Amino acid sequence: MTAVTLGPEGTYSHRATRALDDDVVFRQSVTDIVAAVAAGEFDRGVIPIENSIEGSVTESQDALAEYDVAVVREIVTPIRHALLAQGPNFDTIASHSQALAQCRSYLESEYPDATLEAVSSTAQGVEYARENPSVAGIAHPATAGDDLEVLAADIQDQTSNATRFFALAPASERSEAGGKTSLVVYPNANYPGLLLELLEPFADRDINLSRVESRPSGERLGDYVFHMDVDAGLYEERTQEALDDLEALAERGWVRRLGSYDLEHVVD
Ligand SMILES: O=C(O)C(=O)Cc1ccccc1
């Protein structure tokens, strides 16, 4: 099987993809990855979803609301960032926006004058550092290879830094089995108590919600899509009943079942 993930080689997404044992190909953006899996070009896609310091990867959420794909696995990996460069004389630090944000305090105290440049991935920033002595990257230390120095290790703002990734498959492979389920709900409505009503079907059936996030629908200001993760599988009757209620509440919009899966931790 072939999995597509964020490249080039050595990104955290690539590290997470190793859990799948598939051949790996790379794309430059999360949206491209989700679109390619939805189009059936690859068996699997791996994208970052949320980080324990910085929160949701909004591009991933928006792509899951836009393209019809299945979530078939969840992979949680620890993230330990290093500062890498040809030497200490750099003026620009290039990395993925999530990595720059996860190291914000460190960068403000150690490199207050550096220019921070958000690039498509951590490993892409390292490529720029390899080409240019005035650029440093923030990435996994293994990306340093033989030609870059690890100037500082473990520079993330909290020692405990973990990222949750989703393994995606074409929609036809959606599973009802597993202890967790991810949903996207667009109620296309706005009235007092709407959010409460959307949560009640789960509370009434004693189903724990492990995440609720709102994202702008893009239709109009103040209109939202809700991303929900619940600790129950789609195979369970209580989940099916809760979803029937949710569908009725979202009759003017839609409910997308991304699928059920089990939690998996991969130590790097
Ligand atoms: O750029 C990468 O290496 C990615 O895979 C995205 C990312 C960035 C920072 C933390 C986790 C994932």
Keywords:
268 residues; Alpha-Beta Plaits; single chain; D-Maltodextrin-Binding Protein, domain 2; five-stranded mixed sheet; 16 strands; 26% helix; 2 domains
Can you give a write-up of this model?
The chain has helices at residues 12-17, 30-38, 58-66, 97-102, 104-110, 122-131, 194-203, 237-249, and strands at residues 2-6, 23-27, 44-51, 55-56, 69-78, 82-85, 92-95, 115-118, 135-139, 149-153, 162-170, 180-186, 209-216, 224-230, 254-261, 263-265. With 268 residues, it is of the alpha/beta class. Strands 1, 2, 3, 4, 5, 11 and 16 form a seven-stranded mixed sheet that branches. Strands 8-7-9-6-10 form a five-stranded mixed sheet. Helix 2 (30-38) packs parallel to helix 3 and helix 7 (194-203) packs antiparallel against helix 8 (237-249). Bound molecules: 3-phenylpyruvic acid. 3-phenylpyruvic acid (PPY) is lined by residues 6, 11-13, 48, 51, 79, 96, 98-99, 121-123, 163.
CATH fold assignment of the largest domain: Alpha-Beta Plaits
CATH architecture of the largest domain: 2-Layer Sandwich
Write the H/E string, N to C: EHEHEEHEEEHHEHEEEEHEEHEE
Helix content: 25-40%
- Biggest β-sheet: count, sense, barrel? 7 strands, mixed
- Unique ligands: 3-phenylpyruvic acid
Shape: elongated
Tell me, what is the CATH class of the largest domain? Alpha Beta
Number of helices: 8
Strand portion, in percent? Answer: 35-45%
- Which stretches of 5+ consecutive residues score pLDDT under 50? none
> Would you report the number of β strands?
16
Distance between the termini: 22 Å
CATH superfamily of the largest domain: ACT domain
CA radius of gyration: 20 Å
Class derived from helix and strand content: alpha/beta
Summed over residues and divided by their number, the pLDDT gives a mean of 96
Domain ACT: 183-260
Protein name: Prephenate dehydratase
GO molecular function: prephenate dehydratase activity
Enzyme class: lyase
